[in-house]
Design goal:
This protein is α/β, with parallel strands linked by helices and 239 residues long. The protein has six helices and ten strands. The protein has one domain (8-145, 190-238): Rossmann fold (3-Layer(aba) Sandwich). The strands form two sheets. Strands 3-2-1-4-5-10-9 form a seven-stranded mixed β-sheet, sandwiched between helices. Helix 4 links the parallel strand 2 and strand 3. The N and C termini lie far apart (37 Å). Bound molecules: S-adenosylmethionine (SAM). InterPro entries: Methyltransf_25, SAM-dependent_MTases_sf.
Length: 239
């Protein structure tokens, strides 16, 4: 069974997790790339917004308007009640069903959501709806834990077990370190990178680019050095 994001305790524990690594090697480069590509005067759909951690960062980064959607009313309430929400709004949805018209948003993001769905058909539903509600020329970013960095103990989490190879669609435990020294265990689904390309392409997205940020300085000689980026980011365009 996956993580129950409707559960209040799960939602509170996720809030306690210090996402500085996600910020530095995930959210920050995503928001920078978005602003470089489309500027700030845009409306962004945050699919699977959770408690609004990324939406608030988009607003703080100068993005004009953010619309967050999530399957969990608990998470939507949390996001809506935050005093720093600025020009953002939050809505509860069912998987893959959005009440927005075609061609509504300039961009969309989907952070740590693919790994929370264990059916490929649900991934496709999500991405098709995102594609439908984006204007042409829009960009869609998908950010997730890196399927090629399982079992590596990063400074704040470990994604899967050491020395284990995961199959596409297999359940994988993730261990998040909380500030009090305890571990918050969540259950994700392992998706190979090929699956992300497949789903994005099938939903109609083009020019899919892959980004993997790490602390290793790749401008120096890294030959023979095995390094593991903690996250993976796909940037896809709708024409
Ligand atoms: C790990 S949290 C990430 C929240 C946020 N994107 C972030 O980066 O902090 C995953 C969120 O995705 C939501 N979610 C999972 N599957 C979903 C689906 N099929 N449709 C909408 N929301 C979904 C969950 O309810 C949860 O709030």
């Amino acid at each position: 069974m996956g993580t129950n994001w409707m559960n209040e305790e799960v939602s509170n524990l996720f809030d306690q997790y210090d996402d500085y690594l996600e910020e530095r090697l995930g959210y920050k480069p995503l928001i920078e790339n978005l602003k470089e590509s489309l500027g700030q005067n845009i409306s962004v759909l945050d699919y699977g917004c959770g408690g609004g951690k990324v939406s608030r960062r988009l607003i703080a980064g100068g993005i004009k308007a953010v619309t967050g959607v999530d399957i969990s009313q608990t998470m939507v309430d949390k996001a809506s009640n935050n005093i720093n929400r600025g020009n953002s709004s939050y809505h509860q949805i069912n998987t893959g069903v959005l009440s927005f018209k075609d061609n509504t948003f300039d961009a969309a993001i989907c952070c740590y959501v693919f790994i929370n769905n264990n059916e490929k058909s649900d991934l496709l539903k999500i991405v098709k709806e995102v594609h439908r509600t984006l204007k042409s020329g829009s960009i869609f970013y998908v950010l997730d834990t890196n399927p090629d960095s399982t079992g590596i103990k990063f400074s704040s989490f470990m994604n899967g077990e050491p020395n284990k190879k995961y199959n596409d669609g297999e359940r994988r435990l993730v261990y998040l370190d909380l500030p009090d020294g305890s571990i918050f265990e969540i259950s994700d689904t392992h998706w190979h990178k090929d699956t992300y390309y497949e789903i994005l392409t099938e939903a109609g997205f083009k020019t899919i680019e892959l980004f993997e940020y790490s602390d290793v300085d790749t401008s120096k000689d890294t030959e023979g050095l095995q390094y593991y980026p903690p996250f993976v980011m796909f940037k896809a365009t709708k024409f």
